[in-house]
Specification:
There is one protein chain. The chain is α+β, with helices and mostly antiparallel strands and 403 residues long. The chain has one domain: Orthogonal Bundle (Cytochrome p450). Helices cover 44% and strands 13% of the residues. The strands form four sheets. It has a six-stranded mixed β-sheet with strand order 1-2-3-9-6-4, with helices on both faces. It has a three-stranded antiparallel β-sheet with strand order 5-13-10. Helix 6 packs antiparallel against helix 7, helix 7 runs antiparallel to helix 13 and helix 13 crosses helix 15. The model has no long low-confidence stretch (mean pLDDT 97). Bound molecules: 3-methoxybenzoic acid. The site of 3-methoxybenzoic acid has 8 residues, from helix 12.
Length: 403
């Protein structure tokens, strides 16, 4: 038997982090979570939670103890049937995880991406041209943060035109399903069959152009690096994980600059800061707020014994604002080194598409920095609620173009 001597009982919270109130503004809850202790029991869901950087980082690194194969949502795949065939990456651990991971690491690596840079820059220029010629006011979410990834990413994967309008609704639902079966999940259920059919139909070899990420995944199957039955599911991972995340990552950095005009001036005077700016915005906003892990053994953390088989909610967004790790954590500051943030996760599951995300963001910001002298929020900003994503519905802005 394991004996645990703890000075304090495990802190308990009755809060619902997936409630509309906390999704609208998670920061007060995160402050309370970090203050309560390194591990907090969320009685509403019978799960544990971590909100401090040190423990979140350590748990993400220890994939042997904190597994992903039982699902990274609240639902435990050991007990409940998953709503879709589990992801071969996100919802797998070594050894099964290794081959799919190695394939995507190469396909989405910086070397492979270099060939896309010029075309993406031209796409960003034409998009910004279209926006500025239509006037100086637009919605930074729909007109830019969503428009740019949708212009470049589906082409980069090589999927057909037909059904692209399903990418965001499918992703929104997929990210909702990591949370509890609340009204956000219910809202997506009527369209599941239709959306799954549409997305799955894009993952077959015949649906894909011959030179995109999708075709490269199928080529890896031909080489024997993965099996042919794995290939379509790995393409599906790109379509699930690669759209809503980048849209909200780009929205995050645009919001940060719109609300910190002095940082925009700084970026314009040193455009090499675009990459720091994006990672700092990912740290600050954490577009992916949370993921669960499941314990594979009894483990003691900070005086709390977490039994084997329990779900633990990792608050990436809270870790990224932990004052024990970050100086002035709530500031958007381009002089900071944001590396080490857990906005892309950490360890063996760390976002395999992060170079794609960074290149998309850097391309948009680079063009904007040349064309826009300043920009400001006008009117009401509106959040989009999702069980996993910190998302925007609308960011109305006015820009002053460079004359
Ligand atoms: C996947 C997947 C889905 C959602 C998120 C994600 C953030 C991966 O299907 O592999 O990573």
């Amino acid at each position: 038997m394991t004996t645990v001597t703890s000075a304090e009982p495990t802190p308990v919270s009755g809060a619902d982090p997936f409630s509309a109130e906390i999704l609208e503004d998670p920061l007060p809850f995160q402050i309370a979570l970090r203050a309560a202790g390194p591990v907090v029991y969320l009685e509403r869901y019978d799960v544990y939670a971590m909100g401090r950087y040190q423990e979140v980082h350590a748990a993400l690194t220890d994939w042997q103890t904190f597994q992903s194969a039982a699902g990274v949502g609240l639902s435990n795949f050991r007990k409940e049937k998953p709503w879709r065939t589990p992801s071969l990456l996100l919802e797998a651990d070594p050894p099964h995880h290794d081959a799919p991971r190695a394939v995507l690491t190469k396909v989405l690596g910086p070397r492979e991406l270099r060939g896309l840079a010029a075309a993406w820059a031209a796409d960003a220029e034409s998009l910004v041209n279209e926006l500025l010629s239509a006037g100086n006011e637009f919605d930074a979410v729909t007109d830019l943060a969503a428009a740019f990834p949708l212009r470049v990413f589906p082409d980069a994967v090589g999927i057909p035109q037909e059904g692209r309008e399903n990418l965001l609704p499918y992703g929104d639902h997929a990210f909702n399903t990591f949370g509890p079966p609340n009204e956000l999940v219910a809202k997506g259920e009527p369209r599941i069959a239709e959306l799954m059919a549409s997305i799955s139909g894009m993952c077959g070899r015949d649906a894909l152009t011959p030179d995109g990420f999708g075709a490269q995944i199928w080529a890896a199957a031909d080489r024997g690096d993965i099996t042919h039955s794995q290939a379509p599911l790995i393409v599906r991972s790109l379509l699930t994980a690669g759209v809503d995340t980048t849209v909200n990552g780009i929205a995050a950095v645009l919001f940060a600059f719109a609300s910190h005009p002095e940082q925009w001036t700084r970026l314009r005077s040193d455009p090499s800061l675009v990459r720091i700016a994006f990672d700092e915005a990912v740290r600050l906003e954490s577009p992916v707020q949370t993921f669960f892990r499941t314990t594979t053994r009894d483990i003691e953390i900070g005086g709390t014994l977490i039994p084997e088989g329990k779900k633990i909610l990792m608050f990436l967004g809270s870790a990224n604002r932990d004052p024990l790790r970050w100086e002035n954590p709530n500031d958007f500051d381009l002089t900071r080194d944001p590396s080490g943030h857990v906005g892309f996760g950490f360890g063996i599951h760390q976002c395999v598409g992060q170079h794609v995300a960074r290149m998309e963001a850097a391309t948009v910001l680079g063009v904007l920095a040349k064309r826009v002298e300043s920009f400001e929020l006008i009117g009401k900003t509106r959040r989009h609620h999702n069980n996993t994503l910190r998302a925007w519905e609308s960011l109305p802005v006015r820009v002053k173009p460079v004359s």
